[in-house]
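TA notes. Do not distribute before section.
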Amino acid sequence: MTATPGLPIRFLVFGLLAVLPARILTQTPAPKSAQNPPAKSSNTAKQPAIAAGPDVQEPQQTKHHPILIVAHGNEPSWSLRLGMKGPERLDRLNYPPIVLEPSDVSVDDTKTVWTYNAKDSQTGAAVSVKLTRDACSDTMSDTRYTFRVVVDHAQIGTLNGCGISEPDKFPEFRKKNQIDPSDTPDTATDKDKSKDRNPALDPITKFTPPVEIAYIDPAGKVIWSHGEVKKTASPSGYELSLSHDGKKLLFTRDLTGTNRTIVLYDSATGRWQDLVTGLVHQAFWSPDDSRVAFLKFVDQKWQVWSFPVNAPDKAAPFSPQTVLALHGWASSNTVLASDMDNAYWLVENAAPQQTVPLKTVYGDTFQIMSSDIIRIHPLNPDLLLISAFYMSNPAGAPVDSMGLNSSFFLYEVRSKRRVALCPTDTWARSAEWSRDGLQIYYTRMGPGKAFATNRIFWDGTVAKRYIAGNSMTIGR
């Protein structure tokens, strides 16, 4: 037997592949993972087109079905890995990866169509992957693919694309047949190791740590920080919000009685000023840092108001909708707010753009409270990060002085897919996205009810302690 040039001899005797060796004519780079999202495509074709010519890479096969397949599609951008046992991971642009648990495989009478069944490991939703042996093009490159692929996820819907055999993209193949230089620890920008990381997940290495942050230190002081440079913005305060350039900080400070003030701190001058006072709180910067939205109690109800940052005296109602909590800006003219029943995407001086029942968001797992915190993913308005209390505390979970365990979860508005992300042995609150959307920073309650800020990646891996402070907010 003569080995194909460039192909390791061990591959030809790999016991779980076909008896007949595979003919590998080209090696096509695998599509980018959702952990390092690819650039958005301007391509408008939604269905893959048939490509002419037989000169395609042959699939790896066991006795019964193809394996080691990488599939992907466009609009929306997605990719899927079909490993030794079946579908193992689904990636989508600007969403965390979905780990799949494969089950059975069936083939039709023509022996050219295989259906792989699996389930979403986090939600239990049914997933099927249909491979049809048929030349296929993704219209984005000249690559000719072996399979036409259809992925059906019970929550997400149907995804259409193309697939090809790429055994060198799978860890189990690399470990047995070759050494991948990218696996060395010197290439990782984060030195932490997650020993219990699911092998279907690739380590996240191309993330951007925060540059400017603000937080409340153990003494209750409001701290602004740029690396090793730390400044005390105020001896007290809460509801922190950093501008997108990281230079200016908004926070709420209590006055006498029930009155409060929204304060602006400038890190360049080290000075702060009161912007608006009264029954006010929860101030947020607009996307371009030119405006501030906040809650104001007027006529016995809370409403969203706003003002130009340089003219707080011109504060005016943003929306007439009665709400209980403000969660930030969704766009230059839209904010996200909520009451005890719904989440509202409020458009300035107009009816709500969208209303979503909180019962649908929280399900039967989490309690709805006005103190809950909702944050929109910085690159994907469909993905929400929600800090809330469990309806029933997980076994062995730590509780606060009210006997409650707080956690955070991800929610996809369109698909209604909900994923609890916080470890169940943790009490966590005030979860915030990093600017790159790959990291989540949250307040963790430790022994003796002491608080610190931890970080975890959006796929639930590599939880680590970050600073000895709480309620952290990120500028850039």
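Switch to the second chain here.
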Amino acid sequence: MQYMLLIYVPNRPVTPEEREAAMPAWMAYSKELQDRKAFIAGAPLAEPTSATTVRAQNGKRTVTDGPFAETKEWLGGYYLLDCKSLDDAIELAAKCPAAQYGSIELRPVVDM
């Protein structure tokens, strides 16, 4: 079963030094996912200030710069995982480095 692991992080700038110091943990986590054959895809996302919100309602398209709402956390990245069970996905989510300072949302991918 596939699960989307959504990584929410505190809404604050990360310094280059903080990012560099965190990289070994992220690399080790990604390697573990690959070694367990759970990794399908994953990537970090740019900060919410780079976002564009698009709506197409009642035949009218509107485009808005920036994030849709002010939040204390923002979606910082994702992993798409192939797991045997929800328990397996929970175990892998708990090992994500961001679980120590943010939150991880798990959602099953609907098989269409």
